[in-house]
Structure formats: structure tokens, C-alpha cells
# Entry
Amino acid sequence: MHILKQILRSPKLQSIASRAFCTTLNYGSYDKMGINAPLNRKLRMGMVGGGQGSFIGRVHSIAACLDNRAVVTAGALSSNPERSKASAPDYAISEDRAYGSYEDMLDAESKLPDDQRIDFVSITTPNHTHFEVALAAVEAGFNVVCDKPMTFDLAQAETLAKAVEQSDVIFALSHNYTGYPLVRQAREMIASGELGEIQAIRSNYIQGWLRTRLEDSDQKQAAWRTDPTKSGAAGCFGDIATHAYNLGRYMTGLLPDQISCHLKTFEPGRKLDDYGTAVIRYQNGALGTVTASQISHGRENDVSIEIDGTKGALQWRQENPNEMIVRANGQPHKIYTRDPNAPHTTPGAAAACRLPSGHPEGFFEAFANVYASAFDAMVARAEGGPIERVNTIYPNVNDGVEGMYFIQQCVESSKQDAAWLPLKHERARR
Ligand SMILES: NC(=O)c1ccc[n+]([C@@H]2O[C@H](COP(=O)([O-])OP(=O)(O)OC[C@H]3O[C@@H](n4cnc5c(N)ncnc54)[C@H](O)[C@@H]3O)[C@@H](O)[C@H]2O)c1
# Structure
């Protein structure tokens, strides 16, 4: 009882006790949580986008701060300077760090002393703005976490990748589905050969929210996503098929070779595709398909993937993310659950868990795992340590280039009645 009282009074003892508790129970990455040792402080986040009424900015702020490793310090939260400043209290951003534009934020933050200025910029704005914000942030020496698709077109993506390469900044892309523990489990099982040679990948991203012309109402998320000047050359395929394609690439590491794609706009008058299917030939001879829809009645956020190998097959669905089915002919079907303590859980999957099995983890936690991997690299950069910038756990600028190449080739192939076009890119990584 005396010891317990002492622990409750002392923050230092509390921290030691909590680490000892978590280590004893082997609660995955819990024992790694803290304040970014050896930096020993929280990373300071400057957010662009995320103003009142927006969607993904709030998710970024929660994901970044989930493990107590970051704090939202500054923001240029809206394209409208007044709304930007008015949104700052929602994130507890102080008045002097609430900026009217991202240019003001980068300029003012660059002039602050090292121990005050932001460490990274999170870009959570519509697609057409990503490039200018990201390039300016990289050139000013700030780490970046950018939402997908990385840029408006491939040329911008390649320019950005070169700028990142020539700098020493950490650049992460929030393909957040890569952060689910069972996605990382699949990746590690495939890499170790458990499924044999991979021969087929079927990935889908099926939604129904744009079944009607929602863009004609006041719905701003629908408005910019269906506007080619803001979304880019593709609608549904730029917005969500890129996630499904990235998921297959992330899980299997198979390198793409060629693509054939059909895009359709089913809602009359809509300016961009709202449905499509792509077939991908991989360099090892495997075949992949990516189907994405925004017009399927009743479908919410149904990202799913099936992978067939010579020794086994797996299936995962993000609407039920804590389960993965693995099958092999002649054997009972296996249901893997997210379980940091199970002997069959791979190290990367265990490290991506925060809770024991049976306590559902979901979208925020997966998003936070992308941030956590990027934070490890940011801490290493701040400490001057060696940093892996190509084969990262988190999706990086090269994956962003690949995503933009995928979009470009889908649109071009579709224009040519699903002609086969190249999909090999020098930046593609296993
Ligand atoms: N990773 C994911 O799962 C996921 C999910 C949804 C959206 N996204 C991506 O996130 C981005 C934003 O999507 P959303 O649905 O949150 O959009 P949104 O329309 O809800 O929010 C965009 C926000 O950015 C602000 N903004 C626009 N231009 C700005 C500028 N120049 N400076 C500062 N703020 C500016 C807007 O005022 C708004 O607050 C898109 O690129 C989208 O593709 C990713």
C-alpha cells in the first residue's frame, strides 16, 4: 500500500510502473510509448487543412496525438484566413500560432528558435493544393505527412520526390490502411513465403455515398472530389482506388508491369469517374484487379483484399479489421485475430497493436501507426542518426509517385478502350 501511494505521487515512478506493467503483459508497442526518446519531448505538428466542417484533418490530429508523441502546435486550417483562425481553438492552437495561410505558417515557424518551431507539417487539404504546400514545407526543411493522392498529377509527384530526396526531411503519405496490424501481419507472412508465390490480388474499395449528384448540394467533400480542377484527372479512382492499389502493393511487394483500365461515370452530368476496374499484370506473372465504386447502394467504406498464393490464400476487410482469414486446400480455414500476444503474430503486427486481443482497434489506431512509424524516423533525423528513407514501414514519397502513375495510366488506358499500358516505375519498391 505504501509503495502504491508513492507511485501515485511520483510522475517518474508512475512512468516506470506503467512501462513495467505493459512489458509484463507484453502489450505490443505500449512499452515504446512515451516522449520520443532520446529526443524526450513531443513533436510539434503544424496542420494545413482541418478547418471547421472538414473531414480528415481531425483524424490526422487525433492519430498524431494518440500515443502522446505529438501536439498540434500550429495550423493554417482553412483556405479562408478568417475561418482558419476561427478553427484554431478546436485544436487548442494558441492565437499566435493560428495562421491565415500555409505560407504565413511556414514563414513564421521557420523564424522561430529550434525549441519552439514545428517539427512537421500535416497536409489534409484537397488534392490540388498538396504539391505547393508539400514542396514549400520540404524546401523550408520541415518533415511532412501528406494525405493521398500525393499531388494533382505525376509531374508534380516526380518533382516533389526529387525535392524530398535532395533534402533530409521525412516524408510520409497517409495510406492509412497500411497501418492495420493484420495488414502488417499479411505483409510479413507473404514476405516470409507462408503463402508461396503470389499469383493473384483482388482489391476493392466500394462506397455508395455518390450514388446521387451530392455535389449539386452543399456537400463540400463531394463538390471538390467531382471537380477535375481540384480532384485531378480521376474521381473515384484518384480518391479511393489508389488506396486499394497501394494495399495490394504494400501487402505483397509485387512489382507492377502493365495496366488496363475501364473507368465509368454512371451519374449523368458528373465530370469524373465514379466507378472503375483495372487489371494489373505484375512482373512475376501475377494478375491483379482493383475495383472501386462510389455508386454502390448501401456500401460504406468497404476496402477489402484477397490474395492467392501457391501455398495459401488470405482475405482481409477493413470494415472488420481485427480479423483475417487464411485458407489452404485440405485444411480448416484459419481466422487470425489481432492479438499482440499470440505466438503466430508477426513482430510488425504485434508492434502495431495498442490493446490486448478482443478490444477492437480501428481506423484511428491504424492511422496512428503510420504516424508512429514516421515519428520514429523524425526522431532519428532530429538526433542525427541514420535513417532509412526508401524501404520504410510507412508509405513514403515513392509510393506517392507510384500512386500518381497508377492514376495517370488508368485514365489513359480507359481513354484508349482499356489498352494495356506500362505500369513499371523506377521508384516502385518491394
Ligand atoms: N487517408 C484517408 O483515408 C483519407 C480520407 C479522406 C480524405 N483524404 C484526403 O484528405 C484530403 C482532404 O479531404 P477531406 O475529405 O478532409 O476534405 P475536406 O473538404 O473535408 O477538408 C479540406 C480542408 O482543407 C481546407 N483547405 C483547402 N485549401 C486550403 C489551403 N490552401 N490552406 C489551408 N486549408 C485549406 C478546407 O478549408 C477544409 O478545411 C484529400 O486529399 C483527400 O483525398 C484521405
The domain at 180-356+396-422 is CATH 3.30.360.10 (Dihydrodipicolinate Reductase; domain 2). The first helix runs from residue 2 to 9. Residues 20 and 31 are 8 Å apart (CA to CA). The pocket of nicotinamide-adenine-dinucleotide is lined by residues 48-51, 54-57, 76-79, 102, 124-127, 129, 147-148, 174, 176, 220-221, 224, 239 (CB under 6 Å).
